[in-house]
Amino acid sequence: MRKPRFAALAFALLWLAAFAYGATREGILDGVVLSGKGTPVAFAEVFWQTADGRAPHAVRTNGSGRFRIAGISQGLYEVRAQGLGMTSEWEHNVWVPAGHVASVTLRLTHRTARSGSRK
Q: CA 86 → CA 27, 37, 47, 72, distances in Å?
């Protein structure tokens, strides 16, 4: 009788350890995009990638100018936003720790280049 009970306990402990290990390897990047006047920018596009430039992605802010990127690996990221015909500077080396939330504020300050514009 002890053998099945021990096997079940060992399996449960291994499963719990694997789950806990996987859960702590990911973090959340949370932020807001603001206009040059400091007001939130709804539906702005937010670009993010690993600090070495791999795995580029994009998300949009909500109606309050906020965005949340969950389930990303712990590490350094670069983040930039675009909206209202403007863009922000790249925020370099944004550290996203495992099991925690990193926050960033992106300010739109530079005009985006318009293709086909006249000189």
A: 29, 12, 14, 27
